[in-house]
Structure formats: structure tokens, C-alpha cells
Amino acid sequence: MRDLKAVGKKFMHVLYPRKSNALLRDWDLWGPLILCVTLALMLQKSSVDGEKDGGPQFAEVFVVVWFGAVTITLNSKLLGGNISFFQSLCVLGYCILPLTVAMLICRLVLLAGQGPINFMIRLFVVAVMFAWSVIASTAFLADSQPPNRKALAVYPVFLFYFVISWMILTFTP
Amino acid sequence: MGMQELQPGQEFGDGATLLAANPDATTINIEDTGETSKHQPRPRGSSGREEDEELLGNNDSDETELLAGQKKSSPFWTFEYYQTFFDVDTHQVFDRIKGSLLPVPGKNFVRLYVRSNPDLYGPFWICATLVFAIAISGNLSNFLIHLGEKTYHYVPEFQKVSIAATIIYAYAWLVPLALWGFLMWRNSKVMNIVSYSFLEIVCVYGYSLFIYIPTAVLWIIPQRVVRWVLVMIALGISGSVLAMTFWPAVREDNRRVALATIVTIVLLHVLLSVGCLAYFFDAPEMDHLPTTTATPNQTVVAAKSS
């Protein structure tokens, strides 16, 4: 119960990013795990044809998310940042929350059939959530870098969430 | 051996005048070389960008060698060892990218921008961006080309990302390894003035791939002519960066060996770009081209031959 409350509190911090240390101080990886599994499950095709029609498999989403987060963390530490390994993983994982919400909305919108208007709505939602994720994570991560390397540490985060947004946007049931 | 007493008001800096006054006086010079070489990169980094353009290696080779000797002292199993490969600031990375986009004849990329501080940040993240740029642009381009066809079902083709990653990273690491081995072997036979370390070669190759990122995005345009023009431009720029970097390293060698090396470097680059274009981007169909005068003739010819 206590862990669940901690996870819920961190979700709130991601949705309304303020200058607080709650995400960094007591890191946990439950939230990122729940979000990653949810995202990977939702990215699976609803059809049971059994053929691989080109979308990312469950394992591929998992690998992209976790290896991406580890790579960004290593990059940040190698550039001289003073954030710990698991703190960084925690922040990056929790900031996938807006994109998971976007995935949920996209699946609901796709129930109404496909078409250009449908696509425009999904594009708009994914773009807004992508911006939200990037802003939320840089709010937490940028302070840990020396000032002349902030952009170098933030760009991989941008690329990471861009790739996840692309996977969400190109999802076709 | 008379030591001059310092008059009140005189400073130590008047050593030259003191010596001129009394040439027999002994002078003691204490130079803190460690201090000066440590302070070198900071002012250079913050304000001396214009100076970077002028200094071409001879003046600061001693300091950079000292610095290089100081930097790589940690054993390879510590984290600090790998941190030395990421010792770049934002503006340094931008300068190196600019240098790869604007090859100036006579200015060597390694000498000018890398300067005994090869970094792995640029090559790694440029390759990562290029992998996703090619995969995503290829997917988008195929979608746009086949838009409207009734038999076409859009697939995200996510598996192509892993193929692209294998190709790009293999190119960015194995070709420099082979080139470095080859240059080392030639160095043992012919004494070359310029020799590059393995990381510097990786650095040049990594930054030279940057031009392909906008090229890959522009390859979405489904016109064959546009795509080939883009290939030519990208090859021209990155090929010349590579050629101008490696020409000084093989210049003293046998003429034929030198030319063959440069030609091989450029050929491998051509192979990479043309291969990526062919594999990830479907060819635009004939009837998608704006030259509508061609199609009636073709249908007439097809009708006649059938």
C-alpha cells in the first residue's frame, strides 16, 4: 500500500512538473515497469492472425524502452552529470506516463475507424504528450548536468521520446 | 655571485630589467608546467573559437600531448577512463558538426576540430539519429508512394530499425578499424608524418555521417532525380571531408597505394549511401512522376507489344 501511494505520488509529479525532489530522492522502478508493460501491451495488434505485420513486438518495445533509458543514463553520467544510475532510470521511466496516456487515447480514437481526420487528432495528441514528456524529464534531469553540456545530455532524451511517439503514432490495429 | 636586493616598489616581474642591470646575478626560474597546461583548454574553450581556426597544430602540439598524457591515465576498467571520451562541450560538438558540413580544402578536420580530444559522443549519437532517420523516413516515403493503392496495407516495418542499426554501426566502427590497421601497417613501411589514432578515425567517420541525416529526411520526396541529386551532394561533402582528412596520412606513400586508399574510402561511402537508398526506400513508380507525356507512349508500346 505504501509503495502504491509512492508510485501514485510520482505520477502526479510527472503530470504537474514542479521543482521538487520527490522523483529523485526516493526512486523506485515500479512505476516505469508498470508503464512499460502497459505501453508494450497496448502496442500489440488486436488481431490474432499470428502473422508479423511489422509492428513492434512486445519484446522490442521493452528493449527499446529499457536499453534506451540505460543508454541515456550512461551518456549523462559519462558527460559528467551527478545523478545516480537508478535515479535517472526512474525519471526517464516515469516520464513515459504522458505517452502512455496518448497511446490510450489513440486506441480509443482508432475505434471510430481510420481516416485523415482521425490521423490529425492522433498526431495532435501524440505531439502534445511528446512535448509534455520531454519537458517533464528535462525539468528533472537538466539540473544535474554542468551548464555547458546541458544540450548534449538533453538531446538523447528528445530522441528517445521521439522514437516512442513514432511507435505510438504508427500503430494500426 | 651577487643577488640583487629588491627595491621597495619593484615587482618580481622586473626580472628582465634586474638581469640587464646585473648580468652576473643568478636567476632561478620556477615554471609550473602542470598548471599552465591544465589552464590551457578552459580559456580556449570559452572564448578562443576564432583562435581555433588559426592554430593548426604546431603551436599547441606540445601542450596537447602533455594534456593527452595527463588525460588517459586511468586504467581501462574504471569509469573515469571512459569519461575521457566524452570530454566535450556543446559548442565543441556543434563546431565539429559544422566542420563536417563545410569542408575547406587545406584544413584538416582532425587537426582543426578534434585536436587530440576525440570524443565518442558525436559518432555514437549521430549514428543513432541516422538509424532512426533512415528507418522512419523510409517508412514514411513508402507510405506516401503507395498511398491510394487498394492492395497496400500500411505496416510500420519496425524490424528495419534493427537492420539499419546493424549496418550503420558496423560501418562506423569496422571501417575505421580496418583503415586504422591499414594505416598502421603502411606506417611501419613508410614513415608518415601524420598518423591518426583509432579514436580520431572513428571520430572523423562519425561526424562525416552527419550530412546523411538531413539527406535521409529529404529522401522522403518520391522523385528519382531529387534523390540522386541529394546522394551526389551528400557524397560530395562527406567524401571530401574524409578524403582531405586521410590524404596527408598517405601522401608520403607510394603514389598508387595512396590513391587506392582514398578511392576505397570514397567507394565504401558510396556503397553505404546507395545501399541505404535502395534498401529502405522503395523506388517511386513510373506513373507517380510528373512527366505525364511519358506514360501515354508507354501504354501504346505495351499495347503494341502484347
Keywords:
heterodimer; A: 173 residues; mainly alpha; 8 helices; B: 306 residues; 15 helices; globular; Yip1_dom (chain B)
Order of helices and strands of chain A: HHHHHHHH
DSSP strand tally of chain A: 0
Gap between N and C termini of chain B, in Å?
112 Å
Low-pLDDT runs of 5+ residues of chain B are 31-61, 287-295
Structural Rg of chain A = 16 Å
Beta-strand percentage range of chain B: under 5%
**Mean pLDDT level of chain A:** 85
- Oligomerization state: heterodimer
Low-confidence stretches of chain A: none
Look at the helices and sheets of chain B and give the structural class: mainly alpha
Strand content of chain A: under 5%
Q: Which geometry of chain A do the CA atoms define? A: globular
Largest sheet of chain B, if any? none
Count of extended strands of chain B: 0
Tally of alpha and pi helices of chain A = 8
Inertia-based shape of chain B: globular
Concise summary:
The complex is a heterodimer of chains A (173) and B (306). Chain A has 173 residues and is mainly alpha-helical. Chain A is 71% helix and 0% strand.
Describe the structure.
The complex is a heterodimer of chains A (about 170) and B (about 300). The relative contact order of chain A is 0.16. The longest helix of chain A has 26 residues, at about 115-140. By secondary structure, chain A is mainly α. Chain A has helices at about 1-15, 20-25, 30-40, 60-80, 85-95, 95-110, 115-140, 150-170. The termini of chain A are far apart. Helices cover about 70% and strands about 0% of the residues of chain A. Chain B is mainly α and about 300 residues long. The radius of gyration of chain B is 28 Å and the shape is globular. Chain B has 15 helices and no strands. Chains A and B meet through α4 and α8 of A and α6, α7 and α9 of B. Chain B: It is a multi-pass membrane protein. Chain B: It holds the Pfam family Yip1. Chain B: This is Protein YIPF. Chain B: Its main location: Golgi.
